[in-house]
Inverse folding.
């Protein structure tokens, strides 16, 4: 589904990349949104209307897995100061994400200290009053339930709810404060005002690409037009042009999976084994331009080279450089004869005289509101699409009449299975180019010709079959229940953690990637900076008090539409049409309702209790480039928790857990805590010239060395036993290990 829009399968990797992305966006005055909160792990059954069902699916999960795997990236997003968080379509433990008070009020706003606003995914709001009380601050796009133009759970209904006390004024003020606070925080109050007071406001329209367009596109009542697209060049020019960054990121993110005989990097002059020109063939639809990069709505088709997944997260390409075009330009045509075959059907005669064959294949997926054939967002399997496996096998077996060399280039939204051809003797190199964006061809040329080092690393595990990933990896595609149920029974064991637990050998492990040079790691030193204690420091007192407002309910007449106000049909307004819509008197909440909740001891700052993020252990290692050229290595730090850890303070008799899980079994007085074999906790990419060495220092925080205790409802650090600290190049290439 939409996992291509994220950064990988590990919570720490997701967290670091999310935080850096947020900082980059918001440094430019744009509010970033972290989404989709939370457990939006598949497209099937996300939006009920798209699937012809009454209710969205429920993602059912235990409390510890929720915190340690799925909430972790959101915590780091909040620490980075994200202005907005988007709640998801589906339910969590059978409560809709955008109406789940534990997720929004309890975890996000209290425990994680989120200061911005929660907005719904488009039409994800499933109720009115209850979502406001649960912590939703903004409904998008406004109407609901879909399709219902001009009708909203909120709008005038929210005004009525505030006037009749079902939504306290304190909550309404909080909603508005959070939205406006993000606006001020990003400096948007200093921007030019929109017409008629200035020439600011939105500078582009999602409705049209023309300069002049309708000003009120959502209603048929008004044909007023004006400038709606100012064609601002957001990509800059010259040395600051976006294309340079896009090209570098795409090249450095490309992963070298196989490089037999050092065939890569290539020479632009070729390396003919015989007299005459070096003959190179480029094969596959994925190498070519197809019908253009924006041919399909929301990129929801697999044609031409794959540079993006599909859905609302996809964008209009300003241009897209196909790999075949870039390679044709880069090879020296005085010494190399290049032939382009942008088809997935290749005749033997187009292969038999080639010295080198570069074959392209892909695997696409995206958002569930649009389909490509029988792929409705989620991929049906992990194989290459459009007969990609057959294409690779044919090219590899027939290249040079069986004596040529083949390089396979894959563009994909996620892991693919390569078992049917990975060991073909003619296949000398396998390159995973991911989803490279507009600079696809030029970035790949930089990689293949060695203008940049091969320094990308796998953000997920590539198994040998779908079964290798366990039952939790399978998409819930069929359900006869009123609410489709997806149980996250895999717990903490996602991706490489599952492989490690079940001793499954992957084809290529998480964090793996070859380089054009060689590196050596040595001299590991693990230095504790603090003494171990079970719990973080007590929650700190607030640095400032919440803003104080007049929470007195105004007279209903103050909420009437202003006299002479022109209403446009299908637009949503906060005003009411008549005071008769308001029922007087206090709202009767259900028995046991209480707005006073004890603050979480895991909270107290943005992202959580500030002491969770203090450096607790310093890890230093010497990295040396022992190869022939400059290169970049990704030094990775993994942690194994002590053995025989038990929850230090068992529940008292009769005490109940505050877990989010659906557990009904009795609690044992003391529970042994289970951990994955090892978990990623830090990493750093380091560039070194040939023969150069450096000391790499990385820290581990208290949170890195803690687990979520469902009994304590806090992060607990084992105080007995030894932690193991592993340092290496991937989740299974860890030559150095230390203890503390």
């Amino acid at each position: 589904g939409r996992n291509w829009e994220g950064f990988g399968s590990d919570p720490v990797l997701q967290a670091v990349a999310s935080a850096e992305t947020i900082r980059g966006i918001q440094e430019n005055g744009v509010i970033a949104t972290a989404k989709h909160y939370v457990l939006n792990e598949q497209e099937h059954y996300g939006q009920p209307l798209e699937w012809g069902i009454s209710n969205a699916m429920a993602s059912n999960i235990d409390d510890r897995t929720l915190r340690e795997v799925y909430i972790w990236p959101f915590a780091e997003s909040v620490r980075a100061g994200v202005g907005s968080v988007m709640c998801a379509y589906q339910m969590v433990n059978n409560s809709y994400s955008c109406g789940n008070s534990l997720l929004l009020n309890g975890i996000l706003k209290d425990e994680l200290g989120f200061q911005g606003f929660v907005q719904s995914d488009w039409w994800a709001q499933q109720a009115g009053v209850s979502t406001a009380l649960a912590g939703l601050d903004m409904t998008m796009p406004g109407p609901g339930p879909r399709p219902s133009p001009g009708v909203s759970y909120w709008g005038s209904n929210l005004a009525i709810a505030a006037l009749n006390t079902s939504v306290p004024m304190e909550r309404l003020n909080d909603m508005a404060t959070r939205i406006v606070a993000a606006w001020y925080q990003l400096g948007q109050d200093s921007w030019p005002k929109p017409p008629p007071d200035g020439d600011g406001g939105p500078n582009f329209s999602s409705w049209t690409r023309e300069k002049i367009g309708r000003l009120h596109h959502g209603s048929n009542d008004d044909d007023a037009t004006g400038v709606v697209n100012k064609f601002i060049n957001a990509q800059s020019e010259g040395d600051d042009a976006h294309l340079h960054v896009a090209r570098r990121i795409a090249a450095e993110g490309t992963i070298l999976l196989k490089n037999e005989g050092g065939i890569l990097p290539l020479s632009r002059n070729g390396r003919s084994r015989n007299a005459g020109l070096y003959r190179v063939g480029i094969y596959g639809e994925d190498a070519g331009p197809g019908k253009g990069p924006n041919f399909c709505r929301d990129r929801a088709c697999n044609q031409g080279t794959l540079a993006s997944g599909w859905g609302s997260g996809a964008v209009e390409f300003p241009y897209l450089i196909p790999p075949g075009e870039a390679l044709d330009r880069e090879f020296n045509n005085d010494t190399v004869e290049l032939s382009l075959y942008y088809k997935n059907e290749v005749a033997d005669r187009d292969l038999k005289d080639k010295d080198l064959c570069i074959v392209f294949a892909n695997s696409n997926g995206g958002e569930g509101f649009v389909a490509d054939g029988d792929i409705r967002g989620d991929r049906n399997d992990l194989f290459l699409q459009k007969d990609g496996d057959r294409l690779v096998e044919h090219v590899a077996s027939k290249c040079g009449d069986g004596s040529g060399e083949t390089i396979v280039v894959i563009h994909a939204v996620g892991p693919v299975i390569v078992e049917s051809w990975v060991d073909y003797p003619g296949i000398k190199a396998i390159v995973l180019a991911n989803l490279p964006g507009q600079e696809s061809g030029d970035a790949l040329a930089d990689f293949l010709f060695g203008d940049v080092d091969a320094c990308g690393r796998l953000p997920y595990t590539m198994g040998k079959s779908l079964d290798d990933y366990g039952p939790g990896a399978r998409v819930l595609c069929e359900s006869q229940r009123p609410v489709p149920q997806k149980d996250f029974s895999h717990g903490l064991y996602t991706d490489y953690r599952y492989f490690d637990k079940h001793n499954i050998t992957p084809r290529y492990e998480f964090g793996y990637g070859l380089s054009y040079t060689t590196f050596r790691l040595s001299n590991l030193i693990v230095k504790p900076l603090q003494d171990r204690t079970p719990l973080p420091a007590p929650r700190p007192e607030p640095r400032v008090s919440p803003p104080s407002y007049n929470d007195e309910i105004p007279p209903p007449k103050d909420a009437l539409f202003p006299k002479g106000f022109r209403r446009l049909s299908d637009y949503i307004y906060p005003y009411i049409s008549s005071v008769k819509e308001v029922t007087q008197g206090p709202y009767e909440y259900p028995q046991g309702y209480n707005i006073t909740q004890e603050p979480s001891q895991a909270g107290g700052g943005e992202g959580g209790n500030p002491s969770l993020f203090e450096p607790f252990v310093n890890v230093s290692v010497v990295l040396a480039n022992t190869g022939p050229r400059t290169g970049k290595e990704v030094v990775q730090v993994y942690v194994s928790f002590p053995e025989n850890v038990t929850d230090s303070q068992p529940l008292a008799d009769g005490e109940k857990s505050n877990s989010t899980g659906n557990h009904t079994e009795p609690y044992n007085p003391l529970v042994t805590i289970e951990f994955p074999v090892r978990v990623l906790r830090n990493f750093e990419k380091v560039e070194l010239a040939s023969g150069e060495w450096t000391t790499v220092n990385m820290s581990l925080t208290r949170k890195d060395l803690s687990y979520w205790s469902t009994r304590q409802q806090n992060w607990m650090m084992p105080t007995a036993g030894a932690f193991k600290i592993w340092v290496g190049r991937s989740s299974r290439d860890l030559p150095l290990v230390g203890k503390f």
Q: What stands out?
A: Residues 650-654, 661-665 have pLDDT under 50 and may be disordered. The first helix runs from residue 11 to 26.
